[in-house]
Specification:
- By secondary structure, this protein is α/β, with parallel strands linked by helices.
- It has one domain.
- The protein has 4 helices and 5 strands.
- The protein has a 5-stranded mixed sheet with strand order 1-5-4-2-3, covered by helices on one side.
- Helix 3 links the parallel strand 2 and strand 3.
- Helix 1 crosses helix 2.
- The longest helix has 19 residues.
- It is globular, with a radius of gyration of 17 Å.
């Protein structure tokens, strides 16, 4: 049974694994990419949804396959660094977290502004396969999806918004 596979580990890890499995299954059953010329609609998801889509993209491309990632600002987004931050998170997740893809297999670029929410588009073999919607003026959340008080700090050291946080130094002893 599928759920037996998720019996080990913490409750949060099981939720993440189940979420990854369900999103991957959805994409595989739905044909995964644009069908009959219809464009893929943005998925405005949470951290678990984003990592599930990126994981499915990694699986679809294979270890050596090329993943092209294009970030686009949406309505009401004017911060010049938003696309750079979103692309950074995708690259770091795919190359430093679960999959450890080589950096050469992840190509990133900034595209023109779009109407609606900001987005991150994923292309494999020259075809658009997924579009991740991003909350206005927000980072694309990936990595460890636990609440702040449970999140392993080391895992997040190279992702936004955590790169913005200053590391706390222990108080000096007198």
């Amino acid at each position: 049974m599928i759920l037996e596979r998720f019996s080990a580990g913490s409750k949060m890890q099981r939720r993440i694994e189940i979420s990854r499995y369900l999103v991957t299954a959805f994409f595989l059953l739905s044909g995964w990419s644009a069908v009959n010329g219809q464009s893929v609609q943005p998925i405005l998801g949470n951290c678990e949804d984003n990592i599930a889509v990126l994981s499915a993209a990694h699986q679809e491309a294979g270890e050596k396959g090329l993943i092209i990632v294009i970030a686009r600002l949406g309505d009401g987004e004017y911060r010049s660094d938003l696309n750079r931050r979103r692309l950074h998170n995708v690259r770091v997740y795919l190359t430093e977290f679960d999959w450890h893809r080589t950096a050469e297999t992840v190509v990133t670029a900034q595209g023109e502004r779009v109407s609606g929410v900001g987005r991150v588009e994923l292309y494999i073999a020259g075809k658009l396969v997924a579009v991740l919607g991003v909350k206005r003026n927000g980072d694309l959340l990936v990595g460890s999806c636990e609440p702040d008080d449970m999140r392993p700090v080391k895992a997040e050291r190279n992702l936004y918004p955590f790169l913005d946080r200053k590391s706390r130094k222990p108080p000096m002893k007198r």
